Amino acid sequence: MAFAYRFTCPLASGVHARPASALEHVARRFTADVSLTNDRTGQIANAKSVLGIVGLDIRYGDQCRIVTVGRDAAWAVESLRVFLEQSFPRADDAPPPSARRPGDVRLPPVLKQANAVVTPGTPVVHGIGIGRAFSMGGFAVPDTIPLTGVSDLEAEVHRVEEAFGHLLSRYDARLDAWDDGVESDVLRAHRSVARDPEFGQAIVHALRTHGCTAAGAIAEAEAQFSGMLAATGSALLRERALDIRDVCRALLREVYGTALPEDDIRLSADAVCLAETLTPGQFLALDRQWLKGLALAHAGTTSHTVILARSAGIPTVVGVDGLDAAALDGQDVVVDADLGVVVTGLTAEARRYYDMERHRLEGRRVRVHRFVERPAATEDGRRIEVAANVGSAVEVAQAVAGGAEGIGLFRTEMLFLARKDPPGEDEQFEQYRRAVVDAGGRPVIVRTLDIGGDKPLPYLDLPKEDNPFLGFRAVRIYPEFEALFRVQIRALLRASAFGRLQVMIPMISRLDEVTWVKEVIADERARLAEAGVAFNAEMPLGAMVEVPSAAFLIGPLSDALDFFSIGTNDLLQYFLAADRANPRLAALANPLEPSFLRLLDRIVSEIHAHGKWVGLCGEMGGQVRHLPVLVGLGLDEISLASPEIAATKARLAGLSATGCRALVERALQMSTATDVARLLEERDHWRPLPLIDPHLVSVDADCRTKEEAIKTAADLLYAAGRTERPRDVEEAVSEREATYSTGFGHGFAIPHCKTDAVSANSMAVVKLRAGVNWGSLDDEPVRVVILLAIRQADQATTHMRLLASLARRVMHGEFRRQIEQEQDPAALCRLLDEPSESSTPFLEETS
Amino acid sequence: MKIVAVTACPTGIAHTYMAAEQLEKTAKKLGHAIKVETQGAMGIENELTQADVDAADVAVIAADIALERPERFDRIRKVEVAVQLAIRSPEAVFGKL
Fold it and tell me: Which of A737, A801, A846, A847 is the best residue to mutate to test the B interface, defined by the most B CB atoms within 10 Å of its own CB?
């Protein structure tokens, strides 16, 4: 009996890999044959095959048909109908395509003059990498292995089937083992390709009907499916072709074993990989110690290779067209993912440019590093702890070395995910103990298991939910899985004897939940005491404030708990009823909404009124522009990703707590997030900075051109933390320079601009080792460069008076001689930063 | 000679003041009396009144942008120069008077 169901494709990006695998998942539950037809093209595919489904190239609005035939066909078609109507339309969560086009690259003047070959692409992992180029080829069967001519067909088929079996169990074994999250996603994708019936059938078909060897059949299948995916309109699908290529390579290796030459490349010095495509497997085989950059012609922002590169922090540019990898092999190449270009044919000038870039980044690193050891405080002395968010114990030492004053959030989910059984008490204890020991006396806030329908665990058997974020998760599942929770509490109590461990409960919305947790803890404490096991009887207990109801229950919660931490990610999405994973709502879930700020203000002030401690551990804590708001709210701590900690401490030192509070008071009166964002642009809450300080002076700069000198000055501003966009400063200065040269003669130039790319009015001085041509009024080379960068907004300040006075003073030979002779940066600053005696002359003799 | 002058450059950060300084310095050297108004980023400073202008023999306008309140100079002889000239060779500016 056959059943049919018709539907129209509701997905804007068509049926790409993700919705296809969701559909395949449903179809596989039935023994009935399930076919899918795209009426636009007339093609039919097996709906139990992801590759078959995506091969149909179903686009938005295409009319399609599901037909089921077999014993449970009726049931199958009904289930598929429900799936296609309810879940399928939401299966499309493709990220928005990158807005940047390769043609948009504006090269900085110094690089533009360097006459190197600049090939644009799309940057997908930021950073700059320099190394010797090497190329990686695509899929190819070595010449030594014949593609046709099989004497025993059945033996060959058997060989391939056996290889499939081995490959699948290899994937299973690797997935069972402890593995990195991103890598396991890749493995799962590969496993699903290897399991795909269309894929296996295509290989067997080639063997039986085309006279192919195993190698020939695999190569044919590779070409067939890669071609099919490439022909679809979807970028996402083209990226999945890499996964197929990887599976084919792995399969070849299974069949031919040692007969296959080693295809991985050994790196022994800084290297940059150039490739048309790079499979995830090829990437993982490269030594990441030496791999400094990736330049790929055909990889999108979401390919697995790119995801892996991102987690390894390898600067990567994709969509790079027209690089001749063979000709470049062995030459030095730059992957500049900050600009989004690959630079080849490096001239001496281009090398100088990248030396300057390295110097710039190093300068910033050195400055930020000074804050690693310092306690975080605002310029007016208000302490606010800066702590780290971590997902495992091994990250703690690194976070502390990076300046973390504690661990504000230790997520324990990683311990529980991607395994068949929950971790035992001893295993957990060992992790928590290591965390507090590595924290070296700093507090470690461990959040108990925050898991639910969105992160299913095989051993919990949680129901699939339509709306998991509002569902059965976190503290709500503890009573049902009490044994699991008790194991975690025991492990935590035991670890509390080794350091400052604090326990935090996620998703508290009512007092009952706290009461229940406290009973369990008291119970476990008594059992440990009885058994003579050491623990800290005073171990603090706290709660996440992430459900809005908790904000209106601070009194009772404060009586029951020792501390709180605000989880802004969930609090924001619950409060504004805006799913944070939905890109269409991204603008809605804005933490600067005045309503949300009022909620935060209420939470912090109520908790403080009850004499308790409150931190913040959501993404908001890691965003630079929100920092003044967090300080103004009066939080005791902010916790963020560890690479940003020292930089955050450096920024805090520039903020005034009083100014920040005034800012928040004003923000609380605003009506829209736009108003608040505008308020943040004002600088009243930042410590007033002098126009110049010794870090903005370079007395012996090796610059060959005007452009290099301007870049050197702008880079000083970057290293000192006065701009995040030194290129914008350079550009604004060059634009001004284009009207007429600021080289006013006598070997001096005063390049200047008005730009809000600087966070404070600034002056940078670069004294050159040798003069450079500036197109000066007197045609003399320039040896002293005084760059002035003034914010658009604050021009009527004392700074402007100082600058006017400076402009007048440089007209005097004696002053210029002093500047030329002075080599001490501090003394130079004093010289430049004082107003002249008579700055406002008057008309003589005239009434 | 009694001279009034105005300096004004596009950004109003540096050249306005450099030119003013040069004009004042050179006037003193040449024995002229001068009052220089600057129209820079801080707005108008050392502002010339109508009386100042009326009492002067000549007005030097060293401006690369449109002046604020130009009507004050309607009834006086004007010498207009580029800001750069005032900075590079102020003597040449006075030579034109």
Answer: A846
